[in-house]
Amino acid sequence: MTNHTQSFEQGFLFDLDGVIVDTAKFHFVAWRRMANEIGIDFNEEQNEQLKGVSRRESLLKIAEWGGKSLDEDEIAKYMHLKNEWYLELIETLTPADILPGADLFIKAAKAAGIGIALGSASKNAVPILERIGMLSLFDAIVDGNHVSKSKPDPEVFLKGAEALGCSAQQSIVFEDSVAGIEAAKTASMKSIGIGTEDVLKSADIIVSDLSEITITKALSLL
Ligand code: B16
Ligand code: MG
């Protein structure tokens, strides 16, 4: 969903899982169910390493933890199976699952004339945004269906800025993963880390959620 006729002077690029909504808990349940099917188990701490990582890379990581090698047919089968279970779980999402301050912050940015884009690894981003009632706030959506390289490659954010018609220097990335902050840096974009300082130390500003930052403070980075 990109509109090439639009042009914003400044753009805010938002990751989805961990910034706008906590879908990580559903990814964990679905991946663990899938892993158990093939005799592997993993814990919540290991699940941290799957945040922001693509579906295929997540499966390969889990297989590696269990010392299993998978052929292409098995990879396709297990990715499909995990996604079916994940889709069942996200059926329960409602606007109450929006992370603190995310909707108010994005609405305020939009009202200030800033272009709003999604930059997510997920191929399920559109149904998730629909479920939480936030899809119409986005001027551009760049997700796992539009990129060939995953974060820390900057492709997802460069495409987002391009869709908004604004430069990398006038774009700010909002991210909860280390790979996403690294992608913003490689794209020459400022970044706001959503999480804790020990994990996201290289972000320009770090807050625990979007209720803790104002538009003015974010724009002061540019
Ligand atoms: P899907 P984000 C990422 O979302 C998740 O953090 C990650 O755990 C997941 O594997 C990835 O999306 C792909 O998701 O299976 O729905 O295509 O943080 O980039 O918004
Ligand atoms: Mg994320």
CATH architecture of the largest domain: 3-Layer(aba) Sandwich
Tell me the β content.
5-15%
Uncertain runs: none
DSSP strand tally? 6
Could you tell me the CATH topology label of the largest domain.
Answer: Rossmann fold
Mean pLDDT: 95
Percent helix, as a range, is 40-55%
H/E series, N to C? EHHHHHEHEHEHEEH
User: Given the helix and strand composition, which structural class is it?
Assistant: alpha/beta
User: What characteristic shape results from the CA principal axes?
Assistant: globular
Describe the structure.
Helices cover 40% and strands 11% of the residues. With 222 residues, the protein is α/β, with parallel strands linked by helices. Strands 3-2-1-4-5-6 form a 6-stranded parallel β-sheet. The relative contact order is 0.18. The mean pLDDT is 95. Bound molecules: 1,6-di-O-phosphono-beta-D-glucopyranose and magnesium ion. Magnesium ion (MG) binds next to loops.
Task: Write the topology of this structure.
Elements: E1 11-14, H1 24-37, H2 44-47, H3 55-65, H4 72-90, H5 102-111, E2 115-119, H6 125-131, E3 140-142, H7 155-164, E4 171-175, H8 178-186, E5 190-194, E6 205-207, H9 215-219
Helix pairs in contact: 1-4
The structure holds 1,6-di-O-phosphono-beta-D-glucopyranose (B16) and magnesium ion.
